[in-house]
Amino acid sequence: MTADYNGFWKMISNENFEEYLKALDVNVAVRKIATLLKPDKDITQNGDHFIIKTLSTFRNYNMDFVVGQEFEEDLSGVDDRKCMTTITWDGDKLVCVQKGAIEGRCWTHWIEGDELHLELRAAGIVSKQVFKKS
User: Fold this and answer.
1) What mean pLDDT do residues 41-57 have?
2) In this predicted structure, what is the pLDDT of residue 30?
3) Residue 78: pLDDT band with limits 50, 70, 90
4) What are the distances in angstroms from CA 16 to CA 20, 59, 121?
5) How far apart are CA 50 and CA 28, in angstroms?
6) Which pLDDT tens digit goes with each residue over 88-105?
7) Where along the chain do its domains lie?
8) Domain 7-133 of CATH type 2.40.128.20
9) What is the biggest distance separating any 2 CA atoms in the chain, rounded to whole angstroms?
10) Where is each Lipocalin/cytosolic fatty-acid binding domain found (predicted)?
11) pLDDT score for 59
C-alpha cells in the first residue's frame, strides 16, 4: 500500500531555493520573484496516476503522470526546458528523475504526519520545501 498524497498542501518552509534556481540557470529577476512566493500544492492521486498542481500568484505548474511511465515534461514557466521524466515509488516516497540539460536534476516527495516534504536537486544543489495539509 502506497501513501495517500491527495489533498491541498500549503507551503510552510523553503530552504536554499534560490541556489537551486541558480543551478537551473533561471534568470535573476525570476529567481527573486520565485523566492518570495509561498506556492500551494493541489494533489489528486488515483492509484499510480497523479496530477500535481503547483499554484502561486506568479505562475502555476501542472504535472500529470503515471508512476513508472517515462514522459516528456515541458518545464515552460519553470526554467523553459524539456526533459524526459520518470517517477517511481521508493517505499512511500515518490522519486523523480529528469533527464535533460541539467546534471543530476531530480526530486523526492514524501509524507510525514500532516506534512508533505519535497527535496529538489540539480547540479549538486539541494533545496528542501515543506507543505502542511489544509
Assistant:
1) 96
2) 87
3) low
4) 6, 20, 11
5) 31
6) 999 999 999 999 878 899
7) 7-133
8) yes
9) 43
10) 6-120
11) 84
Indicate yes or no: pTM above 0.85: yes
Picking from 1-5, 18-22, 26-30, 60-64, which range would have the lowest pLDDT averaged per residue? Answer: 1-5
- Give all strands of the β-sheet with 115-122 in edge-to-edge order: 61-66, 49-55, 40-46, 7-15, 125-133, 115-122, 106-112, 93-99, 82-90, 71-74
Rounded CA separation 106/88 (Å): 12
DSSP 63-122: EEEETT--EEEE-TTTTS-EEEEEEEEETTEEEEEEESSSTT-EEEEEEETTEEEEEEEE
The residue whose grid cell reads 491541498 is 8
Angle at 64 between CA 62 and CA 65, to 5 degrees: 145
Q: Is pLDDT of 4 > 70?
A: yes
C-beta of residue 93 within 8 angstroms of C-beta of residue 5: no
Q: Which residue, 66, 15, 78, 8, is CA-closest to 41?
A: 8
